[in-house]
Write a sequence for this structure.
């Protein structure tokens, strides 16, 4: 039974998870493993009860929730096996899954289920934590085994409003390259192109440009590791999209119709 | 003094303008020139008082507001000179300005000021009319002459919350190619690329993909004439953006930093 949860990386996602389960009725302890500043901010918003070291957290936690940047999650996992409580459940919120799930093959004393909540904001940090961040959002899980602890964790995901989706790591990375990494690269490319070539276009900015440059505000600190650990898939998606943009003028009516239909379907799910 | 306004094309923009000035206190008559169905919808939401023919509207209106598709506006303008009340003010809401301002050179019996409110929705029609659509939005004007009627019209723009920006038609078309037409083409290209290559990515759609595909829902009926009448500028912007996307991987940290800074500045205006 999950009595103690440890959140490693008390940023936006980790703190929002702590806050969400507390708001959904979790009455146990939520420990935080993070920088002193993040711990203070996460305690302030009520997302965690107290901070401690990874060693202490791993020794006590029934559920370890790793919400650091991707490569830091893989690094934490590599240190974790001797530290964890036997039979604990380790999960994560990393934006790519192959590197993390590969690292998790070394975990022998605990169960690992990879995770990726499809939620976020362009602002970072525990101060922006939001208990409803995962409501009606897809939460990808990899390598489930239906153990009691895992089913209990998935019960909490349901209670915080997330929609579970089971995918293997390879499929996940292939799909998010298109649904997440490609939109980010397009938004960054659009903003950088305007900044370089025609910055005065900002004078006639409308709501469309605002939508299309929101992702571009994201920090490269986060994206660096995401793009590095999914470079093959993200690169292929970008190349395919560039080819589509080059071909767009050959059949504008057809491409508009197809894009409109796809985008409307996307909102009917 | 503006006592009668005629809105030609009672769609989203025309009806929102009628509604906005009425809500801001305009006590005169607002005539509508549009299809029977649009007139009915615009009257239903209180955007216009009644429908009539272009001939009747032009004979009565002190202010003629043309909010049809771009080529239809140019066509209306070509018919207008013998029909208008002497000294009337004709303005428009067309998304490109060169073709329209060229056509307006034939107007001798009235004043013409080109206009373009940087506002919109992905839904069309008078039923979606919104009196606050122009609030805090840029409204481009071309070729102003500070006549009493024009100053009165610009007073109404202020009262409905729009921010006036004076630009010549060529500069306008150059800037909106980047701020409006390029974002539209990228959104369409993104949605079409996913639809063609990896439609299953919809299973892991997050808020980023939603932002980036909102414009893609737009109807080609509208965009056809916009892209046709600004093909040179929109094409150049698309080519420059494709080149930027191709070069992105050569300096991801630098491009992210530049794009982030530009996008944040855009929101400080």
């Amino acid at each position: 039974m999950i009595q103690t949860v440890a959140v490693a990386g008390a940023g936006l996602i980790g703190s929002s998870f702590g806050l969400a389960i507390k708001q959904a009725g979790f009455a146990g302890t939520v420990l935080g493993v993070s920088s002193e500043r993040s711990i203070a901010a996460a305690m302030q918003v009520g997302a965690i009860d107290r901070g401690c070291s990874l060693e202490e957290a791993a020794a006590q936690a029934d559920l370890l929730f790793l919400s650091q940047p991707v490569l830091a999650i893989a690094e934490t996992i590599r240190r974790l096996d001797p530290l964890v409580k036997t039979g604990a459940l380790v999960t994560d919120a990393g934006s790519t899954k192959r590197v993390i799930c590969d690292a998790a093959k070394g975990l022998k004393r605990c169960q690992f289920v990879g995770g990726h909540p499809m939620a976020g904001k362009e602002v970072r940090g525990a101060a922006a934590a939001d208990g409803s961040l995962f409501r009606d959002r897809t939460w990808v899980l990899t390598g489930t085994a239906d153990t009691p602890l895992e089913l209990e964790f998935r019960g909490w995901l349901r209670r915080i409003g997330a929609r579970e989706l089971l995918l293997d790591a390879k499929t996940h990375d292939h799909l998010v390259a298109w649904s997440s990494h490609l939109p980010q690269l397009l938004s960054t490319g659009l903003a950088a192109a305007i900044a370089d070539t025609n910055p005065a276009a900002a004078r006639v900015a409308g709501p469309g440009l605002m939508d299309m440059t929101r992702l571009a505000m994201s920090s490269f600190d986060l994206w660096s590791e995401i793009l590095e650990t999914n470079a093959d898939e993200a690169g292929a998606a970008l190349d395919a999209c560039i080819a589509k943009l080059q071909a767009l003028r050959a059949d504008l009516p057809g491409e508009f119709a197809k894009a409109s239909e796809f985008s409307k379907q996307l909102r009917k799910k």
